[in-house]
Amino acid sequence: MEKIKIAIQKSGRLSEKSLDLLTECGINVSNGNRKLKTDAHNFPMEILFLRDDDIPQYVEQGVADIGILGQNEVWEKEKDVVEIEKLGFGNCRLSLAIPKDEIYTGLDYFNGKRIATSYPKILKKFFREKGRDVKIEELGGSVEIATGIGLADAIFDIVSTGSTLIMNGLKEAEAIIKSQAVLIGNKNLSTAKTELLERLLFRIKAYKNGQGKKYVLLNAPNEIIPDIVRLLPGMRSPSILPLADKGWSSVHSVIHDDDFWEIIDELKRLGAEGILVVPIEKMIL
Ligand SMILES: Nc1ncnc2c1ncn2[C@@H]1O[C@H](COP(=O)(O)OP(=O)(O)OP(=O)(O)O)[C@@H](O)[C@H]1O
Ligand SMILES: O=P(O)(O)OC[C@H]1O[C@H](OP(=O)(O)OP(=O)(O)O)[C@H](O)[C@@H]1O
Ligand SMILES: [Mg+2]
């Protein structure tokens, strides 16, 4: 039987979350013995553990059929691959940063300056579009050190919390682009592999749909049910079941984490009782 080959990061920011996603999709992978290639136990899938920089090229060539990596690497490598699905982790931005005591005057500040980065293509394209002339110093990593050692006047690198910038005496001047982990794929997958990809995607979407949502069950007197339904639209509409206690119903619905507490407060104010909140593992729409 044909297997789909997926490339994930061997060790780094995305490794654990990539494996966790496969686990959430019911795909069991054992990687205890540092093997760089392994088979899933219960899905026709082979997992390749690689440097994230190499994944776009391998997916383009078909060495791997699909891969998980940051959009930043996909954009930088400019390989002929398709972005299939955003995965909702590895969220970060690519930013220009300068020494903290400098006065930032807008993009003109960078005219003629040396900027250190591991993302020269993205940076070159950005300044070309903005019509500014900069000198790019390409570095493989530890980019934040570049200004402190006199290699560059500014840097362009990944920022998340901003603490690496602060620790290295820098401040964020411009956030250029946002990135997150994505699933990418080869453009010419066989029919069998496309079917396997569809099965995987179905599971990824079911997992993603359940993220950031809660299942809520509550009891309420029938006269306030219309108000509660207005608050809890649910997926289609909430389920309403009569309780053994006449004049009362049980309402079941899905709510987003974002407005969770506001809705709970309002439900209580309306007179709902016995509110039960349950995490959602998967949701198939
Ligand atoms: N601080 C962060 N917060 C969130 N996501 C991040 C952060 N740093 C990096 N990422 C994302 O995770 C990806 C991998 O980051 P990591 O630092 O592990 O890369 P790397 O050092 O290039 O690894 P490799 O050894 O595989 O080349 C990045 O390309 C980016 O998409
Ligand atoms: O804004 P922050 O939350 O501080 O995160 C940003 C840092 O995270 C990444 O490095 P990582 O820690 O993955 O180490 P690396 O240099 O080995 O890639 C990135 O290259 C930045 O240096
Ligand atoms: Mg890398």
Automatic annotation (TrEMBL):
<dbReference type="GO" id="GO:0000105">
    <property type="term" value="P:L-histidine biosynthetic process"/>
</dbReference>
<dbReference type="InterPro" id="IPR018198">
    <property type="entry name" value="ATP_PRibTrfase_CS"/>
</dbReference>
<keyword id="KW-0963">Cytoplasm</keyword>
<comment type="similarity">
    <text>Belongs to the ATP phosphoribosyltransferase family. Long subfamily.</text>
</comment>
<keyword id="KW-0067">ATP-binding</keyword>
<keyword id="KW-0328">Glycosyltransferase</keyword>
<keyword id="KW-0460">Magnesium</keyword>
<feature type="domain" description="ATP phosphoribosyltransferase catalytic">
    <location>
        <begin position="51"/>
        <end position="205"/>
    </location>
</feature>
<keyword id="KW-0028">Amino-acid biosynthesis</keyword>
<keyword id="KW-0368">Histidine biosynthesis</keyword>
<feature type="domain" description="Histidine biosynthesis HisG C-terminal">
    <location>
        <begin position="211"/>
        <end position="282"/>
    </location>
</feature>
<dbReference type="Pfam" id="PF08029">
    <property type="entry name" value="HisG_C"/>
</dbReference>
<dbReference type="InterPro" id="IPR013820">
    <property type="entry name" value="ATP_PRibTrfase_cat"/>
</dbReference>
<comment type="pathway">
    <text>Amino-acid biosynthesis; L-histidine biosynthesis; L-histidine from 5-phospho-alpha-D-ribose 1-diphosphate: step 1/9.</text>
</comment>
<dbReference type="InterPro" id="IPR020621">
    <property type="entry name" value="ATP-PRT_HisG_long"/>
</dbReference>
<comment type="function">
    <text>Catalyzes the condensation of ATP and 5-phosphoribose 1-diphosphate to form N'-(5'-phosphoribosyl)-ATP (PR-ATP). Has a crucial role in the pathway because the rate of histidine biosynthesis seems to be controlled primarily by regulation of HisG enzymatic activity.</text>
</comment>
<dbReference type="InterPro" id="IPR015867">
    <property type="entry name" value="N-reg_PII/ATP_PRibTrfase_C"/>
</dbReference>
<dbReference type="GO" id="GO:0000287">
    <property type="term" value="F:magnesium ion binding"/>
</dbReference>
<keyword id="KW-0479">Metal-binding</keyword>
<dbReference type="GO" id="GO:0003879">
    <property type="term" value="F:ATP phosphoribosyltransferase activity"/>
</dbReference>
<dbReference type="GO" id="GO:0005524">
    <property type="term" value="F:ATP binding"/>
</dbReference>
<keyword id="KW-0808">Transferase</keyword>
<dbReference type="InterPro" id="IPR011322">
    <property type="entry name" value="N-reg_PII-like_a/b"/>
</dbReference>
<dbReference type="Pfam" id="PF01634">
    <property type="entry name" value="HisG"/>
</dbReference>
<dbReference type="InterPro" id="IPR001348">
    <property type="entry name" value="ATP_PRibTrfase_HisG"/>
</dbReference>
<keyword id="KW-0547">Nucleotide-binding</keyword>
<dbReference type="InterPro" id="IPR013115">
    <property type="entry name" value="HisG_C"/>
</dbReference>
<protein>
    <recommendedName>
        <fullName>ATP phosphoribosyltransferase</fullName>
        <ecNumber>2.4.2.17</ecNumber>
    </recommendedName>
</protein>
<dbReference type="GO" id="GO:0005737">
    <property type="term" value="C:cytoplasm"/>
</dbReference>
